Amino acid sequence: MEEALYDTPMFREFVKLDQGEDNLPDESTILRFRHLLEAHELSVQILATVNAMLTAKGLLLKSGTVVDATLIAAPSSTKNSSGERDPEMHQTKKGNQWYFGMKAHIGTDAESGLVHTVVGTAANVSDVTQAHALVHGEETDVFADSGYQGVNKREETQSMDIDWHVAMRPGKRKALDKSTPMGAIMDKLEQTKARIRAIGEHPFRVVKRQFGHIKVRYRGLKKNTAQLHTLFALSNLWTARRTLLRAMRA
């Protein structure tokens, strides 16, 4: 970041440090600032502030939520003094492949595709255990993939006045007899739920492809979860950028 501020005038202008290179912070100052954000959990407030602005502009509707999770890889070995892997990261199996790292769980507005809630866990934590933490309480419907089967029976969701629309397990859907009226209706229902769930996958694409965040940058869940809050706040601005620019020109 120190080098980027020196080399790129646009970066200096963005952070309002374009008065001269003598005023630019060095890497130690930037590091202390990041530690300050983490210590006071200010990245959570960054996401909340961005979303408050987007809500004021009518972009966060809050009538429905899509919950989903993605794996973020961590180094399987390190060059630290102990040579040990990060003890807060864990491995999990997805399909026929093993992964080591953490999970980013998000709750996304089903209409706008904007992220309102972020939770970071180790990779081996089941998606369904975090479902209750990904809703804001104002939605009436939540959409989720088959990894959230049984969510409505869990103790932490019993008091929620929410309709959970969870995808049918792939094997069960494959066994549907689509030649029958009931089978055809069930298949169409699954297609509709899949189209809604796809909205919740867009923020992952922005964070991983646009921002290049495919691996954790730090050791420990707290630091990496703090960064995820900031990244998803930025992804919300990226997703809403055209609407925001039109509003500025109007």
What does this structure look like?
α4 packs parallel to α8. The longest helix is centred in the last third of the chain and has 19 residues. β2 and β3 form a beta hairpin. It is globular and about 75 Å long. It is built from 9 helices and 6 strands, in the order ααααββββββααααα. The model has no long low-confidence stretch (mean pLDDT 91). The chain is of the alpha/beta class. Strands 1, 2, 3, 4, 5 and 6 form a 6-stranded mixed β-sheet that branches.
Radius of gyration: 21 Å
Structural class: alpha/beta
> Which overall shape is indicated by the principal axes computed on the Cα atoms?
globular
Note poorly predicted spans.
Answer: none
Count of individual helical segments: 9
- The count of β-strands is 6
- Total number of domains: 1
| Biggest sheet statistics | 6 strands, mixed
| Ends apart, CA distance between termini | 34 Å
N-to-C SSE series?
Answer: HHHHEEEEEEHHHHH
> Portion of residues in helices?
40-55%
- The amount of beta strand, in percent, is 15-25%
- Mean pLDDT rating: 91
Architecture blueprint of SSEs:
Blueprint: H1 2-7, H2 9-14, H3 27-39, H4 42-56, E1 64-73, E2 90-94, E3 97-109, E4 115-122, E5 141-144, E6 163-166, H5 170-174, H6 181-199, H7 202-210, H8 221-239, H9 241-249
Parallel strand pairs: 1-5, 5-6
Antiparallel strand pairs: 1-3, 2-3, 3-4
Which keywords apply here?
250 residues, alpha/beta, six-stranded mixed beta sheet, 6 strands
TL;DR of this structure?
With 250 residues, the protein is an alpha/beta fold. 40% of the residues lie in helices and 18% in strands.
